[in-house]
Specification:
Number of helices: 15
Strand order of the largest sheet: 2-1-11-10-12-13-14-15-16
Helix content: 25-40%
Strand content: 25-35%
Largest sheet: 9 strands, mixed
Oligomer: single chain
Mean pLDDT: 90
Radius of gyration: 23 Å
């Protein structure tokens, strides 16, 4: 599917919406409601505030904020002055955040009082010129709001082009240290247009923002709101009961979720008596949602849209919707923009339909570059194609199936082995809580090793796991087992298998990985 050729900046999109639909509700925060006219005026005031502080085109502006309207105001204002926003992952500790700050070198940090202690630790950074407290108790800081009222509310008049960078987000770091992804205004326009052409979004819809806005998926949603003319209702802290209360009270038509959120929400909607008639779609991004969970929601009348994406693709690469047929539910659907191919990891040549290889994609939604990392950029961006490092296959109808992360594929002496297939078998054991299978160098290739976390109170042993596997898998698919208390994960709960491999190879001590 193609997208419109003409690209607009984020600031232009918001200004146009404010002119076209001035009285349409734009944003609903914890303590505030703005029409598009009011929201655009507040954004303009914040843009003038930034300009007075010396923020100019290309400067980095860091945000340490929850999923609420203060973030949206600062984000849009930074876009209007041509600055590059750096949304910080507030789940990280101060040492990790300092690393991101030193990598991106922002001149100003906007933060909420919930993160005041962490922000205080950032204050000594010599490149950080100003810290602004924008939120207090999930509301706009009264002192900051007063300062804005003294600024003009007309457009800042800065020259910003569609190809200019607008945000620097950091990858989840599943295959190595996180990388800074530089995304442009035109990337967001292309992504937002493609999303609106692929799912049931209408003017005057009401979208519930529940996931952190340091994720590209969260950013794309709130940035697409003025493009399509819908209202964004913010939920600063996810709660499985309150989410249904908001659906009923605010007449929510769409919401964004992660698979664990769907699991927590299901019992509440089944046991409660909520009026959920307005809800047309539930988007689910992140790792694959369990098929049974998706089917349960659909049986209750809630269509779940599965999203496969990447920061480098400005969010979504494919969508799966129930209309595509339940027989394709295990896929991640079809491409929403540009092209997708499956290529041989070694040769880079396209493989026949049905064969497994690396997923690569191309289109106007692809990111600009990795920040300060030309080597990684040239490695993963080749001739206009982004190499996702995911192993997958396309069927004859164009449905994409994700098999594994390409760097996690185990190359034994004779064949390639996909860890997810082994993990699925081991997770059938009642006493297994979690498992991660990685390839360990054995001198002639890689041997599959399972790191297993047993359930509390279990007396499961390595030999028990091996014996179970022997009865269900070929011997070469699992060579040994290591019991561990925890698996190393990033802030999204994704297992960092590269750390397990580094531990096995003796590159890092075990205590740094599994505790």
């Amino acid at each position: 599917m193609g997208v419109l050729k003409t690209m607009y900046t984020i600031g232009e999109i918001l200004r146009n919406r404010a002119e076209y639909s001035p009285d349409l509700e734009a944003v609903v925060g914890t303590d505030a409601r703005y029409t598009y006219r009011e929201f655009n005026q507040r954004v303009n005031q914040t843009a003038h505030f930034m300009l007075e502080l010396g923020i100019r085109k290309g400067d980095r502006v860091a945000l340490l904020c929850t999923t609420n309207h203060p973030f949206a105001i600062v984000w849009m204002a930074a876009a209007k002055v041509g600055a590059i926003a750096v949304p910080l992952n507030w789940r990280l500790n101060s040492e990790e955040l300092r690393g991101y700050m030193e990598h991106s070198l922002p001149r100003i940090l906007f933060f909420e009082d919930a993160f005041a202690d962490v922000a205080e630790e950032m204050e000594p950074l010599i490149f950080l010129e100003r810290m602004v407290r924008v939120g207090v108790d999930n509301k706009l800081n009264p002192a900051f709001e007063s300062a804005l009222l003294e600024r003009p509310d007309h457009e800042p008049g800065c020259e910003v082009r569609p190809e200019d960078p607008v945000v620097l987000t950091y990858t989840s770091g599943t295959t190595g240290p996180p990388k800074g992804v530089v995304t442009t205004h035109q990337n967001f326009f292309a992504a937002g247009t493609a999303v609106g052409m692929s799912v049931d979004i209408r003017m005057r819809d009401r979208y519930l923002a529940t996931i952190p806005l340091f994720h590209i998926a969260g950013l794309v949603a709130i940035t697409s709101a003025p493009l399509w003319g819908f209202t964004t209702v913010f939920m600063p802290k996810f709660h499985p009961v309150q989410v249904w209360d908001l659906v009923e009270r605010e007449r929510i038509t769409q919401m964004m979720t992660l698979p664990p959120m769907l699991s927590f929400m299901l019992p509440e909607v089944m046991e409660g008596e909520w009026d959920t008639g307005s809800l047309r779609e539930i988007f689910c991004t992140g790792s694959n949602a369990p098929e049974d969970l998706v089917k349960q929601y659909i049986s209750l009348g809630f269509p779940v849209v599965l999203i496969y994406g990447a920061s480098e693709c400005t969010g979504a690469i494919t969508f799966w919707t129930p209309e595509m047929g339940m027989d394709t539910c295990r896929s991640v659907g079809k491409s929403i923009a540009g092209e997708i191919r499956i290529v041989d990891v070694e040769t880079g040549k396209e493989v026949p339909r049905g064969e497994v290889g690396e997923v690569v994609c191309k289109g106007p939604h692809l990111f600009s570059r990795y920040w300060k990392d030309p080597e990684a950029t040239s490695k993963l961006m080749k001739d206009g194609w982004f190499h996702t490092e995911d192993a997958g296959r396309l069927d004859e109808d164009g449905f994409l199936y994700i098999i594994d992360r390409s760097p996690d594929v185990i190359r034994t002496r004779d064949e390639e082995l996909y860890p997810s297939q082994v993990e699925a078998v081991l997770l059938e054991m009642e006493q297994v809580e979690e498992v991660a299978v990685v390839g360990v160098n054995d001198g002639a290739g890689e041997a599959p090793r399972a790191y297993v976390v047993k359930k509390a109170g279990s007396e499961l042993t390595e030999d028990d796991v091996l014996q179970y596997a022997r009865g269900r898998l070929a011997e070469h698919k699992l060579k040994d087992v290591v019991m561990t208390n925890t698996l190393p994960k990033n802030s999204r709960g994704i297992v960092l298998k590269y750390l397990l491999r580094d531990q096995a190879d003796g590159k890092i001590p075990p205590e740094r990985v599994t505790g």
